[in-house]
Amino acid sequence: MRFRNLILTVAVAAALAGCTNETLDSVNLSSVKNKTEYQLSGKMVSKMRELGMQKTSPILLRIFKEEGTLEVWKANTANRFQLLKSYKICAWSGKLGPKVKEGDRQAPEGFYPLYPRQLNPNSSYYLAINTGYPNTYDKANGRTGTHLMIHGACSSSGCYSMTDEQIIEIFALARDAFKGGQESVQLQAFPFRMTAENMARHRDNPNIDFWKMLKVGYDQFEVTKRPPAVNVCERKYVFNQQSEGQFNATAQCPPMSTPPALQMAMASYDKDFRRDYEKALKKYQGMVWYEPTEAERKAVVADQRKGRELAYAPTGSSLDAGKLLKVSELEKKIAEQKEAEEAKQAALIQKEALEKAAREGKGLPVPQANPLERSVEQAAVQPEPASKSLWGLFSRNEPNASPVAPTAASPAPQAPPQPAANGQQEVPPAQDKPQVAAAPAANAQAQAAEQPAVDQAPIDQPKKRPFWKIWGN
Question: Engineering a disulfide at 207: which of 15, 97, 291, 347 sits with its beta carbon 3.0 to 4.6 angstroms away?
Fold first, then answer.
């Protein structure tokens, strides 16, 4: 009996969860003949009826990057919006924070009106809805970018990409709302659910001031369950403000006021928020949130790509890939990332320089031999000049004082002379001697060598003159 009750409980929970889960009535695209005229399933229409919604009543879209979620809210008969279905975003590029310029791979954050003309049935990504970026606020702040979409194909470069099964339902919900007379669908794109705990966790993010501005509109929708009226003045968003003046995005805001009923409701909401925020600050004291890169998010869901086309590129949730760190740990991690990025940029610059040189026909420089090594080698084989005594430097009659004739090449080594039959050492023939131009004195010595050896008396060397008589007469 207990097992049966457990099965019933699980079944009921699954049915209730299906009301806001992307797996509800998963679309079989193979059976869809006309994607732009796709009709919502009978179960989806029945759910609308249970919530007091007309098939063609207005809708609102909310996006939360960190959770990777796109919500479809729909107006009931009391003109209050209720959550109809929640979809898991398949891919969004960049990190938390608004899009600032073309090519930064950031997905937009802010409030964007979607008009019927922004529905694109001929998109290369199955179906698409243009977000309308840049809106009035983005333009007033000099932000640039084009073609930022909510589309299919699960591949993003600054867009919010869904699966084809998801986008065909979202497209149909928007189409039916426009048919019912809704002029524009409000898209609210947030970095995360702006609860007290999340705001405390991201308090050190450089985008926190921008997010605090968006939070005003977020809070007012949470309280009223109606899309806030959005205007821009002084290059900032203002929500649900009454004024007799005109709102100009770059000019000073006109005199304005908040409706009394909304002001009272927001006062109570803000009081609860401040209490919860102070509690969250104590929880996260000394800790900071590490916001993961797109690559780190992709790594978490890498297995989802198996068996699919390469274009299918889910990016995962920041909550799954990010983590809380101590301040010192985060600083170290950021420094390592910065060092790696600088090395990557240096390698890229070097590669571009080599490619440019190749295009211009310039040869790459060839390293030359070190001349210092050759000089040392040559110096080692040069014969050192005979050293002269201190007295010889000043002697006029010193035989070594005469200039030295150029040294001829050294003769090749010869085999030692063999002994003759009579025991006398055989004198090598004259022709075996190298032919060298010698000084006359050398010739005389050569002739004397051919004569029989005769003992000679030692030749008296000229006497050296005393140092003090070098300059004497």
Answer: 97
Cis check: omega of the bond before 134, within 30 degrees of 0: yes
Q: Where are the alpha helices (DSSP H) in 66-195?
A: 136-140, 164-179
All structural domains of the chain with their residue ranges: 33-193+291-321, 195-290, 325-354
- Residue whose structure tokens are 């005003």: 216
Residue 127 clears pLDDT 50, i.e. is over it? yes
Please name which of 460, 425, 430, 434 lies closest in space to residue 447, comparing C-alpha atoms. Answer: 430
Active-site entry in 90, 151, 154, 233: 151
Check pLDDT > 90 for residue 465: no
Beta carbons within 8 Å of 209's beta carbon, 6+ residues apart: none
For tokens 């009035």, what's the residue? Answer: 136
Q: What is the pLDDT of residues 347-406, one digit of tens each?
A: 889 888 888 888 877 655 555 666 555 544 444 445 555 544 444 444 444 444 444 445
Catalytic residue among 19, 147, 154, 159: 159
159 is catalytic: yes
What's residue 110's pLDDT?
98
CATH code for residues 33-193+291-321: 2.40.440.10
